[in-house]
UniProtKB/TrEMBL annotation:
The family this protein is said to belong to: Belongs to the protein kinase superfamily. CMGC Ser/Thr protein kinase family. CDC2/CDKX subfamily.
Coiled coil ranges: none
Catalytic activity: L-seryl-[protein] + ATP = O-phospho-L-seryl-[protein] + ADP + H(+); [DNA-directed RNA polymerase] + ATP = phospho-[DNA-directed RNA polymerase] + ADP + H(+); L-threonyl-[protein] + ATP = O-phospho-L-threonyl-[protein] + ADP + H(+)
A family per Pfam: Pkinase
InterPro entries, per the entry: CDK, Kinase-like_dom_sf, Prot_kinase_dom, Ser/Thr_kinase_AS
One GO location term (cellular component): mediator complex
Compartments (UniProt record): Nucleus
Organism, scientific name: [Candida] arabinofermentans NRRL YB-2248
Enzyme Commission numbers on file: 2.7.11.22, 2.7.11.23
Keywords noted in UniProt: Activator, ATP-binding, Kinase, Magnesium, Metal-binding, Nucleotide-binding, Nucleus, Repressor, Serine/threonine-protein kinase, Transcription, Transcription regulation, Transferase
Protein name: Cyclin-dependent kinase 8
Predominant place of localization: nucleus
Length: 442
């Protein structure tokens, strides 16, 4: 019976192929003929494009926040039923375009791919939450939850126009939440590699959000070594000494060094190691950052082989040996900046330990004595604070997210220039500018 059924099907297919019109009439089946271009890519792409919901249909663009090497960041408000009036930060990756026409499509940058892939996998209260990724008109839009503040903005508020120390509860809670987020990243085999105040967002509810994972890397079984993939990581003022000494292999300890620098900056309201960066030459050889290392030596003292046994294995050790010897001055620096808590100073020493093998890790740091004594860290870093921080500044004269120069709805498109110094700071979670208003070097 089975063979007869198969033979019958084969005969029907043969009749259909020889004379489809008469076969369909005899069997009372309607004739369905696809157009000649039905199976080509263009009609398919057109149908997909028509089915997509545009960025501007989902979100109302409130203003333009900042710009940098990799794109622009906009503040937006939800328009659909599911996200009505919720605030978002939309990061648009820049394309090679002219008058909104893509003249040379170069694909997706390595940084963008990393950031998208990692953000989609990570889920923690102290990590910036990625809401969705939108592909439209050969542009990529990453939609994040919006943070009204960042630590750089808060530091600036407390240091200008007059000096106003950050309350201990705010400072301690901020550092604790940073370490919570960092512990989550490290336990999931992710190095951040660009921690700094500008990349630490704070929501209106006082919750810390670590952002900008554009330089982040998975460090378990990487396809290529961390150094060969990115020879320069971490903004210069927050770069760990092993990186300055040319380390080819490094660990999550580089992120803890950056946290130590951030803690010191929140205490003194100015960068702890404010060195001058030596730029890379045309041959793209990584230069020895002597000035930055000198700033570290002046406060922490000169490291020795007794305290850092692997010190002489670093490529730039010979350069270090040529620099004048310095004693440790961190305790004196701490006291000169109004520091009195011994446990806070101990945490600073533990995070700024020269030897990365001895440096405090993120998980253990959460049990540090400073966090167990009163006042204990809280979920809202603004709790009991008398300070009211201003909202993030946005520009409303340049919020054409689609780059349509002829669209009167958004006014004229002004390219990627930033109009004032406030917006030259990195939008936390986007990290497109450093503290000096310079485009960040990847």
């Amino acid at each position: 019976m089975h063979n007869q059924h198969v033979i019958g099907q084969q005969q029907e297919l043969q009749q259909l192929s020889q004379n489809p019109q008469s076969y369909l009439q005899a069997t009372n089946q309607p004739l369905r003929v696809a157009s000649n271009d039905f199976f080509t890519i263009d009609p398919y792409r057109k149908r997909k494009d028509q089915s997509r919901i545009s960025v501007l249909q989902k979100y109302e663009i409130l203003g333009y926040i900042a710009a940098g090497t990799y794109g622009k960041v906009y503040k937006a408000k939800g328009k659909s039923v599911n996200n009505l009036n919720n605030l978002y930060a939309i990061k648009k990756f820049k394309t090679d375009s002219k008058d909104n026409e893509v003249i040379h499509y170069t694909g997706i940058s390595q940084s963008a791919i990393r950031e998208m892939s990692l953000c989609k996998e990570l889920n923690h209260q102290n990590i910036t939450q990625l809401t969705e990724i939108v592909l439209e008109r050969k542009c990529i839009y990453m939609v994040f939850e919006f943070g009204e503040h960042d630590l750089l903005q808060i530091i600036h508020f407390h240091s200008h126009p007059d000096f106003k120390p950050i309350p201990e509860l705010t400072l301690k809670s901020a550092i604790y939440q940073i370490l919570q987020g960092l512990s989550y990243l490290h336990q999931n085999w992710v190095l951040h590699r660009d921690l700094k105040p500008a990349n630490i967002m704070v929501t209106n509810d006082g919750v810390i959000k670590i952002g900008d994972l554009g330089l982040a890397r998975k460090f378990n079984n990487p396809l290529q070594s961390l150094y060969s993939g990115d020879k320069v990581v971490v903004t210069i003022w927050y770069r760990a000494p092993e990186l300055l000494l040319g380390a080819r292999h490094y660990t999550p300890a580089i992120d803890l060094w950056a946290v130590g620098c951030i803690l010191a900056e929140l205490l003194s309201l100015r960068p702890l190691f404010k060195g001058e960066e030596t730029k890379m030459d045309n041959k793209k050889q990584v230069p020895f950052q002597e000035n930055q290392l000198l700033k570290i030596l002046e406060i922490l003292g000169t490291p020795t082989l007794d305290k850092w046994p692997s010190l002489n294995n670093y490529p730039e050790y010979s350069q270090l040996s040529k620099i004048t010897q310095f004693p440790s001055n961190l305790k004196a620096w701490y006291q000169s900046n109004g520091g009195t808590n011994k446990n806070c100073l101990k945490l600073l020493f533990d995070l700024l330990e020269y030897d990365p093998a001895k440096r405090l890790n993120a998980l253990d740091s959460l049990d540090h004595k400073w966090f167990t004594e009163n006042p204990k860290p809280v979920d809202n870093i603004f709790a009991n604070s008398k300070f009211k921080y201003p909202q993030r500044k946005i520009q409303k004269d340049d919020n054409d997210i689609l780059g349509n120069v002829n669209n009167p709805m958004f006014g004229n498109h002004h390219g990627y220039n930033v109009g004032n110094n406030a917006n030259k700071r990195a939008y936390a979670g986007m990290g497109v500018y450093d503290e000096q208003g310079r485009k960040r070097v990847r």
